[in-house]
């Protein structure tokens, strides 16, 4: 019989390694993300965080190791297959459709779960129209959830930087993920924006039952909201545990945190 931890595991990363030519970006990295957990991934620049992120979301194939999501192997899956399975992501550099409205951007994400197909889009039958109305309705709900429904008709390029970040989260949520992976969501935000974003991330977990994986350089941001934190340095995991355990880890203090955890 599997233990409680195994039953709760949503994503299991086992001894993942990745080499780019002669460079080892990751070396035998393992971690577990449990259902309903906010899991932080931190480390210095070049630690391998984004490489691991890209492996989990299907952009890179690992050199060695295993990935299991909801007891299904992710090895060999393309990004669209990973998305269908239930992992959505945002990017460190915002990737929105600049000349589409906020509502249209979220609707694009929602279409990943649509059923109409090409024929339905052409003939516009009753089922297709009903689905399109449902997509628009759900997209508005998600814009309201992240706090920017008032900007639904504004072009994405005209939104503030912070609202663009929120829009990208709404678009990812439109795919109905079980795991939402956020790549430096607070980058470029001022302290007030970071605080409201932290509250949003926690509310997504609490209201939607989501699990979240968050890469961040803002250590206080991560410490304040994560249930569990993994720390990478030079492609290897050097610590894994609760924020308090990570804060008190000599290896982490030496490699990355220093005075920031005082």
In short:
The protein is α/β, with parallel strands linked by helices.
CATH superfamily of the largest domain: P-loop containing nucleotide triphosphate hydrolases
The string of secondary-structure elements, in order, is HEEEHEEHEHHHHEHEHEEHH
Distance between the termini: 42 Å
Order of strands in the sheet with most strands: 6-7-8-3-9-10
CATH architecture of the largest domain: 3-Layer(aba) Sandwich
Beta-strand portion reads 15-25%
CATH class of the largest domain: Alpha Beta
Instruction: From the alpha carbons, calculate the radius of gyration and give it in angstroms.
Output: 19 Å
Q: What is the helix tally?
A: 11
Domain count, please report it. Answer: 2
Could you walk me through the main structural features you see in this protein, from its secondary elements to its overall organization?
The protein has a 6-stranded mixed sheet with strand order 6-7-8-3-9-10, sandwiched between helices. It has helices at 4-8, 49-56, 79-85, 102-110, 117-123, 126-145, 161-173, 191-208, 219-225, 243-247, 250-257; strands spanning 9-20, 23-34, 38-42, 64-69, 72-73, 87-89, 179-183, 211-215, 228-233, 236-241. The model is unreliable at 1-7 (pLDDT under 50). Helix 4 (102-110) packs across helix 6 (126-145). Helix content is 41%, strand content 24%. It contains 11 helices and 10 strands. It has 2 domains: 6-86 and 177-262, Rossmann fold (3-Layer(aba) Sandwich); 97-175, no CATH class. Strand 1 and strand 2 (23-34) form a beta hairpin. It is an alpha/beta fold.
């Amino acid at each position: 019989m599997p233990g409680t931890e195994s039953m709760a595991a949503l994503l299991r990363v086992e001894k993942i390694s990745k080499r780019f030519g002669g460079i080892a970006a990751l070396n035998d990295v393992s971690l577990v993300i449990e259902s309903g957990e906010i899991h932080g991934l931190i480390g210095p620049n070049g630690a391998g965080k984004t490489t691991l992120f890209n492996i989990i979301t299907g952009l890179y194939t690992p050199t060695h190791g295993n990935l299991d999501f909801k007891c299904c192997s992710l090895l060999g899956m393309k990004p669209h297959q990973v998305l269908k399975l239930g992992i959505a992501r945002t990017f460190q550099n915002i990737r929105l459709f600049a000349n589409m409205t906020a509502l249209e951007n979220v609707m694009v994400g929602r279409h990943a779960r649509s059923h109409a197909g090409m024929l339905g889009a052409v003939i516009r039958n009753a089922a297709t129209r009903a689905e399109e109305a449902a997509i628009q309705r759900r997209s508005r709900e998600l814009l309201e959830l992240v706090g920017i429904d008032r900007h639904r008709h504004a072009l994405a390029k005209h939104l503030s930087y912070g609202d663009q970040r929120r829009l990208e989260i709404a678009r990812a949520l439109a795919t109905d993920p079980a795991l939402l992976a956020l790549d430096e969501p607070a980058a470029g935000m001022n302290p007030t924006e970071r605080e409201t974003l932290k509250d949003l991330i926690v509310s997504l977990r609490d209201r939607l039952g989501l699990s979240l994986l968050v890469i961040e350089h803002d250590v206080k941001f991560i410490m304040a909201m994560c249930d569990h934190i993994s720390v990478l340095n030079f492609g290897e995991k050097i610590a894994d545990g609760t924020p308090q355990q990570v804060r008190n880890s000599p290896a982490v203090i030496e490699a990355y945190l220093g005075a920031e955890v005082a």
